[in-house]
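Researcher: Let's do a round of design. I'm pasting the structure tokens now; please hold your answer until I've finished.
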């Protein structure tokens, strides 16, 4: 019997893992059905704003081309216009409503567009909409090579290779202004059609951190010493079509890495905490803390100031030839 079990144990383990994966896929699919952005309800501010971002970002791209086709961009202009009319009618205004208005006006006022009848009508209507964003540069801006050069580091290897996951922090809180600064810088992360569907939950209360980390598997041995905890989430309402079923993980992962590096740039250490959890655990954590039902948890991040002396895992990286290849046609 023991020999028989030894023979079939790998198959049993494999079947258990496949079943677990299937349960996870079904849970994600159910959440997409309940909370995804596939609905066409423009009266819902969040849904309208994500769809609006997709449309006006198309206009931004059209505005950014040096040699743009004179008649390009009108289909997106019409989409933006229709959504802005809804926003104006119900007066429940979001960030992307304001940005969409500014981008649309920039597009309509192009010399080749302004003289057309449809542009005149749209300009007449849109300028009357009672919402405006005076503090943003939307559409397209001039950006020179020296502007790009401002991001060049004298020694980039020192910055990137000095970042380690830390699991032993100073027992003091991070300056709130530094947290806000890191998040604002991380917001420059690219996202699909610039929808910016991220949401960051944060706490520095020991009782909350302790309770939350009970549901995370990778903090054993140091979880009770974490001074600051972030939970990175992404809003499912930002994703509309079937081929975007993984996009929230992609956008959330990009933002998470940006936040790790913006914290590092401010002298704040961090440790990424995986959230590849079962549906049961995901449901349980939503019962103890206020996570919006539309938000998918991407990961957690422990953070704090490093001690004067620290020990970190020296996890060596693969040789580059194992992960880098030239693209070739078959």
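Researcher: That's everything. Go ahead.
Model: Designed sequence:
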């Amino acid at each position: 019997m023991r020999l028989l079990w030894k023979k079939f144990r790998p198959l049993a383990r494999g079947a258990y893992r496949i079943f677990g994966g299937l349960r996870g896929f079904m849970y994600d699919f159910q959440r997409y059905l309940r909370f995804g952005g596939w609905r066409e309800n423009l009266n819902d501010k969040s849904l309208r704003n994500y769809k609006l971002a997709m449309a006006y970002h198309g206009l931004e791209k059209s505005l950014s081309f040096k040699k743009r086709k004179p008649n390009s961009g009108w289909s997106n202009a019409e989409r933006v216009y229709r959504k802005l009319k809804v926003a104006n009618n119900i007066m429940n205004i979001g960030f992307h409503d304001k940005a969409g208005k500014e981008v649309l006006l920039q597009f309509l006022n192009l010399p080749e567009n302004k003289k057309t009848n449809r542009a005149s009508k749209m300009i007449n209507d849109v300028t009357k909409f009672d919402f405006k964003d005076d503090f943003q540069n939307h559409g397209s801006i001039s950006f020179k090579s020296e502007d790009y050069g401002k991001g060049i580091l004298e020694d980039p290897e020192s910055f990137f290779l000095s970042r380690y996951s830390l699991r032993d922090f100073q027992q003091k809180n991070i300056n709130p202004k530094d947290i806000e600064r890191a998040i604002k810088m991380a917001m420059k992360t690219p996202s699909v059609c610039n929808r910016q569907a991220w949401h960051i939950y944060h706490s520095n209360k020991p009782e909350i951190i302790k309770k939350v980390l009970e549901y995370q598997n990778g903090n054993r041995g140091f979880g009770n010493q974490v001074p600051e905890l972030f939970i990175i989430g992404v809003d499912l309402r930002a994703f509309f079509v079937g081929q975007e079923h993984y996009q929230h993980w992609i956008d959330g992962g990009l933002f998470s890495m940006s936040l790790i590096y913006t914290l590092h740039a401010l002298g704040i250490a961090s440790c990424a905490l995986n959230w590849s959890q079962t549906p049961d655990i995901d449901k349980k954590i939503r019962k103890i803390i206020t996570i919006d039902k539309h938000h998918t948890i991407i990961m957690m991040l422990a953070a704090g100031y490093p001690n004067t002396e620290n020990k970190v895992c020296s996890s060596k990286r693969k040789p580059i030839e194992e992960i880098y290849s030239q693209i070739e046609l078959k």
